[in-house]
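Much of what follows relies on a compact textual record of a protein's fold. A record is reproduced here so that you can trace the correspondence yourselves:
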Amino acid sequence: MPAESAVLVTPDRRERKKRETRRRLQVATLRLAAEHGLARVTAEQIAAAADVSPRTFFNYFPSKEAALAGEDPERDDRLRTALVRRPAGEPPLAALRAVLLDLAAELVDGREEWQARLTVVRRDPHLLAAGFASWNRLEQALALGVAERTGLDVERDLYPSLLVASTVGALRTAALRWGADAGSSRLPALVAEAIDMLGAGLPPPSAAREERPTTRAGRDRKS
């Protein structure tokens, strides 16, 4: 076949296909786990539901627990790169806030999936370990980004890991509230509020209430 007539697979197209395959595997894992319980589901069944081979499944995930947790090393690397590329003069917390708000915006359309994942994990608490491992990998990637921005050593200095653990904890807390409460605000707003509380030094609730505008209900109680 002449070189000019060959079908070229560009890096962008290759990455897009990889993301689509990973996504199909995650959705298939969640659906089967919700229907049967993850313990009764095999990697081969997940692969078949996603229309890929079992070998392809293990190219993307080390286990079905990792697939259920939504583990995504490429996403973690992308977020680390985005953090490093934030404006040089931006304070570390502000840079992390911007990156995590972008992540929250990406998750908005997946609310039903988030709720389904919470349901599956609550039915099978040993799956919590896989979820924590996924969050931990995200924290490690972002801590490397903070270290690169600040010139610190992630192995020796506390600051990068401590800052990231705090902000990712805020993201996780907001996401749990968003996923469990059908009446809660949109996720990015909750994440922004949680990280801003950190930035303010987590003032005591009484001080925080005093700073908020008084609602009509509050005025009525005081009158």
